[in-house]
Design a protein that fits this description.
Low-confidence stretches: none
Largest sheet: 2 strands, antiparallel
Number of helices: 5
Helix content: over 70%
Distance between the termini: 19 Å
Length: 164
């Protein structure tokens, strides 16, 4: 983990998402094995897996952006003269910031309306609907913060992509 509270938060979200994906794999495998042996399915597991995958994906996105682990199509950028690369990367960060701020505004509105309307998800698992939308709010706020940080710091100081 790194130093600032922001960096630690992103690291915690990344680790939590990884753990969530691992638990989903184990729980799904367990369910398949139990059903194959003639047992019943775990009630609500498929639904819980859906929500966990949704939340983990959104909450890991800011950490992934910070790590440069997101999908990037670099072949065009790398083919450009070096004098154009930096402005293009900054422009894409600015577009990313604008998109995240737009999605943040809409997700805050949808979350508030769901909360104010006392909307509930009524499936096997019952919970307030706004909980789902709040995940998007947190993710978009952190993604916007990361894109803004990249614009302020500049590409040269951004954490390099991990070796995979």
């Amino acid at each position: 983990m790194r130093g600032s509270a922001y960096e630690r938060l992103l690291d915690i979200l990344g680790v939590a998402a990884g753990a969530a994906f691992g638990l989903v794999a184990v729980a799904t495998s367990w369910d398949v094995i139990v059903r194959s042996l003639g047992g019943g399915t775990l009630n609500g597991l498929a639904e819980i897996v859906e929500y966990v995958l949704f939340a983990a994906t959104f909450l890991a996105a800011p950490w992934l952006l910070r790590q440069n682990g997101h999908v990037r199509v670099d072949f065009l950028v790398n083919a450009m003269p070096s004098a154009l690369r930096h402005p293009l990367r900054r422009a894409t960060d600015a577009v990313g910031l604008a998109v995240c701020l737009t999605l943040l505004a809409f997700s805050v509105l949808v979350t508030y309306r769901s909360w104010a309307g006392h909307n509930t998800v009524l499936k096997t698992v019952v919970f307030p609907e706004w909980w789902l939308y709040a995940v998007i709010v947190v993710s978009m706020a952190l993604l916007a913060a990361e894109f803004a940080r990249r614009l302020v710091v500049g590409e040269d100081d951004v954490v390099p992509a991990p070796d995979l």
